[in-house]
Structure formats: C-alpha cells, structure tokens
Amino acid sequence: MTQDDLSIADPKMRAQGVSVFYGEKQAINDVSIDVGTDLVTAFIGPSGCGKSTFLRSLNRMNDTIAGAKVTGTIELDGEDIYAPSMDVVQLRARVGMVFQKPNPFPKSIYDNVAYGSRIHGLASSKADLDGIVERALTRAGLWDEVKDRLTESGTALSGGQQQRLCIARAIAVDPEVILMDEPCSALDPIATAKIEELIHELRGKYAIVIVTHNMQQAARVSQRTAFFHLGTLVEYGKTTDIFTNPKAERTKDYITGRYG
Amino acid sequence: MTFNAAALLLLILGLALIGWLAGRARSAMLAGRSGKKLHSRPQYHGWYVALWLFVPAAIFLAIWSSVSPGLITNQVLASPAAESLPAFGFERSAILSDARDVAQGKAAKVRLPAAAPLVEPYAAATHRYAWIGIAAMLALALAGGLYAFTRIRPDFRARTRVERIVMALLLLASLVAILTTFGIVLSLLFESLRFFSLVPMRELLFGTHWNPQSGAPVADTFGGIPLFWGTVLIGAIIAMIVAIPIGMMSAVYLTQYAAPTVRKWVKPMLEILAGVPTVVYGYFAALTVAPALRNFAVAIGIPNASTESALAAGVVMGVMIIPFVSSMADDSINAVPQAMRDGSLALGATPNETIRQVLIPAALPGVMGGILLAVSRAIGETMIVVMAAGLSANLTANPFASVTTVTAQIVKLLTGDQEFDSAKTLAAFALGLVLFLVTLLLNIVALRIVKKYREAYE
Ligand SMILES: Nc1ncnc2c1ncn2[C@@H]1O[C@H](COP(=O)(O)OP(=O)(O)O)[C@@H](O)[C@H]1O
Ligand SMILES: [Mg+2]
C-alpha cells in the first residue's frame, strides 16, 4: 500500500522545529512531524512527556492557557496556522478536538451536536440542521441509540455514549483533522472497543491524531506512531515498525514495558 | 450579701484548678501504687475532674443568674409591704426597681417615696436567694468533682470521657445560634397571634388599605398589600433590574477577561463595597439620588414625582446588592468545569460565544440561587428604604412616586411612645413574621438550587 509508505508526499499537517513553553518551562523541544491525510497517527509516551501539549498546539488550544508559547512552524495544508492572517476560529473548525474526559455541554443531545453548526452558520434551515445532526450522530455510531431522545440532556448519557456524542459534535462542523487526547482513558473496555471501531470507520474521511496511553490501542488503530519522551520526539514511523522493530533504545524500553 | 456571678465564676474556676491538680495527682499515685499502667495520661484525669466540677456548676450559675431576680421580686410582692403598690404599668415597675437598687447597694437612697417600705423586703429576699444560689452551686461543684474524683482508676478511660465532654460543649456552642433563632421565631409568633386575635389575618394579607391608628383597631386600616407591593417593587423589581445585569457582567468580566492582577484588585474592592453600612447607602439615596431623580422626572413631565421615590431606593439598593450578585455569579461561573469551556473553544466558538452559550447557561442554576438570596436580602433591607422610599402606603406602579415597604413600616410602628399591646404595635410583629417566613422560604429554595447545581459538577 502506498499510503503506508513512510514518506508523506502531501501531509495534512506539518510541524517543523516546534517547541512549546509554559512560562519559563519548556514542555516540547524541537519536534518535527508530518500528519498524513488518510492516516491515523498515534502519539505514545510516558505521562508528562508532552503529548497533550503538542496535540493542543495543532489547533492552537494552547492559546487559551496563560503563559503558553509555541515556536517553530505548524502548517495545515501548507498554511502556517500561527500566522497572523490565520483565523483561529476557522482553524478550530477545521481541526476538531475530542478530550480525555467526555465533556458534553449541559444541553440536549441535539443542541450539543448542532452547537458548532449554529456558531459557524453551516445550516440554512431547520431541516438542513436536522440533516447535519443526523449525519454526525450516524457517523459517530450513536444515532440508533439516541434518535428517540434527542431532546434529553447530553450529560444523561453513559460515559461511552458521551464520548461518541463529543466525537459527533466535532464531526458536525465537518473538520479535516480530528485530534483525540486519550479519548478512552475514562471509559470501560466495551465503550473503548466501540470508540476504536469508530476510529477505524472514520479513517480516510478525516486525518486523525490520537494520544493514547495504551500501546495495544496504538497498535490496533494507527498506521503511524510517534514516541515522545521528556518533551522530545524520539521516534516516528509506521506503527508496525515501531512495535516490531524499534530503532531507538528508549522506544524499545518503553514498548517492552521497562518504564512508563 | 448579693449574688455576684462574676466572683462566683472565678471561685469555681479556682475549684476546678484544684480539682485538676487533685485528679492528676491521684491518677499518678494510684498508678504508682498498683504498678498498673495508666490508660490515659494523668492530665486527662485532671481534666476529667475539673470539667465535672466546673461545667454543672457553671450551667447552674447561668440559670440562677437569670431566674433569681424573678424569684426575689415574687417574694417581695408576697410581702405585706407590697399590698399598697399600684396594680400595673410603668409606675409599679419604677417603684420596684428603685427599691431594688437601694437594697442591692446600687443607689444610696430611694427616689420615689413609695419605694421606701419595699427596700427592707428586697434586701431580705436578695440575701436569701443569694445564699440559696451559692450553697446550691457549691454543692453541685463538689458533688461533680467528687463523683469524678472517685472514678479515677489506672484503667479508667479518662481521655475518651474528656473528648466526649469537649464534643458536647462544642455541640452546645453550635446550638446557641439555632436556639436563638428558634426563640426569635417563637416570640414573633406569639406577638403575631395576639395581633391576629384583634385583626383578621385575611385583612393583613389581602387588604389594600394601610393606615393603622392607635387605640382600638379600626376595620380596613391594616391592609398589607401596599406594603408588600412596595417591598416587591423596590427589592425584587427595581433593585434586581440594576443588580442582575451589572453583577452578571462584572462577574463575566472578572472570571473571563480580567488579567489576574486586575482581578486581584477589583474582587476585594467589590467585597469591601458589600461591607459598607447600609445607612451610608441610605444617605446617598436620600441626599443625592432621590433629588436627582425627582428633577429628572419633573423635567420629563411625570406627575406626582416626589423626593422620596421607589426608584431612588431601588436603584441604590440594587447598587448595594451588586457585589453580592457578582460574587455568587463569579462562584457559579468558576464552578463550570474548564473542560466545558475548552470543548466550546475547540469547536471554533469565540470566547464571547462560549460565555453566552455555554458558561452562562451552565452557571444559570447557581446564579438563580444567588439571585434569590439577593432578593431575600433586598426585601429585608431597612435603612435605605426608611431614608429614601418614604412612609406613605401608595399602591402605585409609578417608580417616581413614594411607596413604603414592610421594613420601613415596622420601624414606623415601633418608634415613638406607644403602648405595647395595641393593634398598631402588634402589627409590627405580624409584618415581621410575614417577612421572616418569606425570606426563610426564599433562602431554602435558593440554597437547594445552589446545592443541586454544585452536585451536578462534582
Ligand atoms: N497548563 C500548564 N501549565 C504549566 N505546565 C503544564 C501545563 N500543562 C502541562 N504542563 C506541563 O507540561 C508537561 C507536559 O504535559 P502534558 O502535555 O500534559 O503531558 P502528557 O499529555 O504527555 O501526559 C508536564 O511536565 C506538565 O506538567
Ligand atoms: Mg495528556
């Protein structure tokens, strides 16, 4: 398969020499990485190594943290996302995000999914919006479970359903990239399996970047894996290579469970 | 010989100290003699004896100090010299207190001639009850001390007992406030019942004409509706129209936009505002805001604009409530998890959209609770309305007109010379009861809402 070739000719996102600082403290040091359009990219590494920090710099969520600073360049389709001309609202509509803990708004299921479309004015009519909501929920594999209770509060769903609602909410604004920060860490094994299945189905429609603690999960869902350690990118390559034939000693140690 | 509570308190404190030393020494001695190990360290045995000695005696002291004057007076009234006293009223109590002061050495000689024959019985009664009190107190102290002292054994669990006694004392302290409230409610209730025996409750609650007169109650003069309306107009409508938007906006600014340094300065300043005595706001309302509003009203041709207006009192009360609403809203907005805000921003919402569509709706239940508390505070506020709203009971929706409130009328009814059993005076208690019940209800509902809201984000 050509798409599993390591060189990515036309990356969806390209980070070059990226460092992230929280005040004086440096959390990410000189990371360069390409994110493929049709691929699922996994970020692995011991906790505190900067995976979330780097992920948040891809949709400029670090802007919301006082004192956070990003240097280097990050491009989306060749466009510098930290350039003054980049509208951060547009950027975040194109690069969606799913968080570690499901965070549905205390609104109805329908309003949760419709939230982004309403803000960005994507629907021209009520019927249009209904269609967007239905498609997003269907893609997130939640439609059959909630179609009769769209007016109920999103917070009344189970943890796994809430997380799929959050994925539907992100899909509804039709993003190009979806960032997921340990989306299953608060879920039970069955809900986790559903999310993984969903990631399989979404692959190809969106560029997906997933941070995970769970190495089996990275091996199951991703085609590319990046191993972070102490704020640096130690190794990046095809998932199969990283897990069967890691080049760096630190990667091998981590994968074989010597630390983490 | 009079009953000097302070000196007696010192006396039992001294006894308690002796008890402490004795208890400690005895426990150490018993342990030494029997060779057994003490369960509790010697000072706990000391404390055990001291507490048993002190607490019952001190409680008796407190009770005796409050009941003995009554007992003394009763004995005096039973004496033959009291037969010539006037039957009731101020004169009678003036004579009695005059005689008492002389008998207890607080005055050199009687001012009222009628008091002279009573001095002797008073002195005798004082003397008698002082001795009874002192003897009973000492007996109680000694009995308590001895009881505790004889229970000391090496394996006696003095530490556990002391802990339990201390806990009981702490419980007692926390009950004081509750019991006081209970007492207040009872007295309000009692006086209100007396009022309702003179004037039907229906009239107070639903009557529309308020013009209470001294003497026997006249029909259709105790209608509370104008007061209730004035209270609602000022406290729940005008004040809230001012306080809710400004308080909310300041909370949004402080939680979402203000730099930490700004927040560090502005928040304490708002809190200081909340501590300004209400009489100061009253001056501001009466001297500055009310005349300005009246001039404005006259200029735009509003009829019967008065210098005392609902608007002046309501606006200033609203300003007074701003810090309260703002700090409640601040807490509620801060209680909304950061994840909610991130979720909205990550969808491409602007900070403004996030505040309006996610944060405020999510914080609303908490804010509502805060607003109800603010209303309950506003309708109980007295000084501003007395100074700025006026005392004429008008049933009007014109905010430039003078209206009156429940609290202002209570003040009016209770000031000046009045006999304490006319319907006019008793009406103050009935109004107080209504106010108390309404604010109590508001507080209960508000606290429930706030609590539920907190749970939702646990
Ligand atoms: N908001 C923040 N302010 C300051 N330091 C932070 C902040 N968020 C994360 N960090 C620090 O940056 C480093 C990387 O954190 P993070 O990206 O959350 O790691 P990971 O997701 O890999 O567990 C950690 O040392 C963490 O303490
Ligand atoms: Mg993380």
UniProtKB/TrEMBL annotation, chain A:
Where does the ABC transporter domain lie?
13-255
Alphabetized PROSITE patterns for the sequence: ABC_TRANSPORTER_1, ABC_TRANSPORTER_2
Give the matching InterPro entries.
Answer: AAA+_ATPase, ABC_transporter-like_ATP-bd, ABC_transporter-like_CS, P-loop_NTPase, PstB-like
Q: Name one GO biological process term.
A: phosphate ion transmembrane transport
GO cellular component, alphabetical, reads:
membrane
Q: Which SMART domains match?
A: AAA
Protein's UniProt keywords contain Ribonucleoprotein: no
| Pfam families per record | ABC_tran
GO molecular function terms noted in the UniProt entry: ATP binding; ATP hydrolysis activity; phosphate transmembrane transporter activity
Q: Which residues form the signal peptide?
A: none
The superkingdom of the source organism is Bacteria
Q: Which UniProt keywords apply?
A: ATP-binding, Nucleotide-binding, Phosphate transport, Transport
Q: Which NCBIfam families match?
A: 3a0107s01c2
Name the record gives this protein: Phosphate ABC transporter ATP-binding protein, PhoT family
Its source organism is Sphingopyxis indica
From TrEMBL, chain B:
Q: Which GO terms describe its cellular component?
A: plasma membrane
> What family does the database annotate?
Belongs to the binding-protein-dependent transport system permease family. CysTW subfamily.
Which BP terms does GO give this entry?
A: phosphate ion transport
Q: Does the keyword Transmembrane helix apply?
A: yes
Its annotated function is as follows: Part of the binding-protein-dependent transport system for phosphate; probably responsible for the translocation of the substrate across the membrane.
* This protein's name: Phosphate transport system permease protein
Could you list the residue ranges that cross the membrane? 6-23, 44-64, 129-149, 169-190, 227-248, 269-290, 310-329, 358-379, 426-450
InterPro entries given in the database record: MetI-like, MetI-like_sf, Phosphate_PstC, PstC_N
Q: Any idea where this protein resides?
A: Cell inner membrane; Cell membrane
Q: What are the record keywords, sorted?
A: Cell inner membrane, Cell membrane, Membrane, Phosphate transport, Transmembrane, Transmembrane helix, Transport
Q: Where is the ABC transmembrane type-1 domain?
A: 229-446
Single GO molecular function: phosphate transmembrane transporter activity
Please state the protein's primary subcellular location.
membrane
Report the membrane topology from the UniProt record. Multi-pass membrane protein
| PANTHER family per the UniProt record, alphabetical | PHOSPHATE TRANSPORT SYSTEM PERMEASE, PHOSPHATE TRANSPORT SYSTEM PERMEASE PROTEIN
Top-level taxon of origin: Bacteria
Answer yes or no on keyword Transmembrane helix: yes
Organism listed in the record: Sphingopyxis indica
At the highest ranks, the source species' classification is: Bacteria, Pseudomonadati, Pseudomonadota, Alphaproteobacteria, Sphingomonadales
Looking up PROSITE patterns in the UniProt record yields: ABC_TM1
